[in-house]
Specification:
Order of helices and strands: EEEEHEHHEEEEEHEHHHHEE
GO molecular function, one term: metal ion binding
CATH topology of the largest domain: Metallo-beta-lactamase, Chain A
Strand order of the largest sheet: 1-2-3-4-5-6
Keywords: Hydrolase, Metal-binding, Zinc
CATH superfamily of the largest domain: Ribonuclease Z/Hydroxyacylglutathione hydrolase-like
Largest sheet: 6 strands, mixed
Number of strands: 13
Structural class: alpha+beta
Radius of gyration: 23 Å
Family: Belongs to the metallo-beta-lactamase superfamily. Glyoxalase II family.
CATH class of the largest domain: Alpha Beta
Distance between the termini: 41 Å
Cofactor: Zn(2+)
Number of domains: 2
Strand content: 15-25%
InterPro entries: LACTB2-like_MBL-fold, LACTB2_WH, Metallo-B-lactamas, RibonucZ/Hydroxyglut_hydro, Sec-metab_biosynth-thioest, WH-like_DNA-bd_sf
CATH architecture of the largest domain: 4-Layer Sandwich
Number of helices: 8
Helix content: 25-40%
Length: 309
């Protein structure tokens, strides 16, 4: 994927009140690196996220502030992942008076309440709790620009991972409503380039997740693949037969993501498991335990109730 990504400069002014500084940590899951954003137009600025603590990031941040003749008074952390929090120590070493805000704060940090407003010269930001990617995840509405800092709930490339699919879907619906609707409204993601049509991208994410869920359901309706010996094992006992007809998570992944490199299948498995758990809570699928292995099937199928075989 890295070879297919649009090249982004280490430092880029995205608007009069927003400068993006890359975290210096490109990778398979961080894309071009973590986006950190310096917000405001006056002598005091607000920072969104801190990268993972790479020396190039704090050096770039210092250069920008020197050129802007500005300093940082506060920083907002969108969520707890290390590639967004790792630079906090370097930030405080350089600007010890900086107030660090985070929902469900760590030691020395200040809490962010849902709906809390942050105002600095040139910008006002409203924090909105949007769990899903993580339980503490916050997005920030930039009122003057009809823009949204989406953290890792929506990315500039590809799709996002999540801890709780039900919460994630609810948050995406909420995010779509945060735009005024008078224009496209930009989205500033935690990774990847700026998204010119924020509402459109959020709607695309919602459709994509719905399609993935439907793929899981349709796959469960089809015969599961043959086993390693080249044919499906059909066992005489009804419980064993139901287990052999049900799907493991990795069998679902290999079928649904057959065009995706196998190196990415373990990451995809997490998303498929989240879909299965959501469907199970909704009463649409059941799990069969075959020894130490879990297999999944549509609810109402023979042997679909959870049981140890």
């Amino acid at each position: 994927m890295a070879n297919q990504l649009t090249s982004l400069p280490e430092i880029e002014r995205l608007s009069p009140g927003c400068i993006r500084i890359l975290g210096g940590n490109p990778g398979k899951f961080t894309l071009q690196g973590t986006n950190t954003y310096l917000i405001g137009t006056g002598p005091t600025r607000l920072l969104i996220d801190t990268g993972e603590g790479k020396p190039s990031w704090i050096a770039a941040l210092k250069r920008v502030l020197d050129e802007e003749r500005a300093s940082i008074t506060s920083a907002i952390i969108t969520h707890w992942h290390h590639d967004h929090t790792g630079g906090v120590a370097d930030l405080l070493k350089s600007w010890p008076e900086t107030k660090v805000y985070k929902h469900q704060p760590g030691p020395g940090q200040l809490d962010i309440k849902d709906g809390q407003t942050f105002q600095i010269p040139g910008a006002s930001l409203i924090a909105v709790h949007t769990p899903g990617h993580t339980a503490d995840h916050m997005v920030l509405v930039w009122a003057e620009e009809d823009a949204l800092f989406t953290g890792d709930n929506v990315l500039g490339h590809g799709t996002a991972v999540f801890e709780d699919l039900g919460a994630y879907m609810s948050s995406l619906e909420k995010m779509k409503r945060l735009f005024k609707g008078t224009g496209t409204g930009a989205a500033y993601p935690g990774h990847g380039p700026v998204i010119p049509d924020g509402p459109g991208k959020v709607a695309e994410y919602i459709r994509h997740r719905g399609q993935r869920e439907e793929q899981v359901v349709q796959t469960l309706r089809s015969p599961r693949p043959e086993n390693d010996e080249g044919k499906a094992e059909i066992k005489a006992q009804s419980g064993k037969a139901s287990a052999s007809a049900a799907w493991t998570v990795m069998e679902l992944v290999r079928s649904i993501y057959r065009d995706v490199p196998e190196s990415l299948h373990p990451a995809a498995a997490g998303g498929v498991m989240q879909i299965l758990q959501k469907l199970q809570r909704e009463g649409k699928v059941s799990v069969v335990v075959d020894g130490e292995e879990e297999r999944w099937r549509l609810a109402g199928s023979p042997g679909a109730n959870r049981s140890a075989l």
